[in-house]
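Supplementary Text 2. Reproducibility record for the structural model of the 236-residue chain.

All settings were left at their defaults, and a single model was retained for analysis rather than an ensemble. We include the record here because the model underlies the residue-level annotations in Supplementary Table 4.
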Amino acid sequence: MRAVILAGGAGSRLKPFTFTIPKPLVPIGEMPIIEILIRQLAAQGFDRITISVGHLAQLIRAVCGDGSQWDVNIDYVEEDHPLGTAGCLSLIHDLDESPILVVNGDTLTDLDFSAAVGGHRDESGITICTNQREVAIDFGVLEIDDEGLLLGYREKPTLDYLVSMGVYVISRWVVDDHIPDNERLDMPDLVRTLADLGHPVRTHNAEAYWLDLGRIDDLEQGDAVFRNQRSRFLPD
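Retained model, structure tokens:
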């Protein structure tokens, strides 16, 4: 199986850390975020990982190397301008017919990536891995009709949403037919394009811990969770 780790972003929400190191190298516990992902992928049977790099690319190459330290083959594609979360896939020219797993390089999760790939159907084009989230609203929420008359009132409700984890399984034909060469394209736009064209988009809903480490407070939370539950993410 093959995976792509998206590691090309500037990590502006994690400044000042990312002034000197790229976001995927920010440490969680005693190791960079990206190393946790690589170890997980290798343990789950992914034998080749392509890392899409941009900002401070040389540092990511220096740390991850060819992957031999984790018994996995690592190669790289480098964006000379930002290509977004889907556009960078156009730089990979040696894909076979198997689906590829794409994961954001700032993701902390115990998701079974191999199960997500196993549940993918080629005709679906994309499978989006999802997570259930609750969002607390700090205000009274009103429901009104077209004339401004009150229909309902909920004081500080908690709303449930199914959100994207930033983990996708993508069929080869999607890369060939719907991702333009060397042009910026983000995953939400690609998903909407496929849906508008009538292609079914599948979701993979799993009971998994997931945290996007793109902000300072989330980074601190992820660091604490990883330190206290390391075996949950990197079982021996």
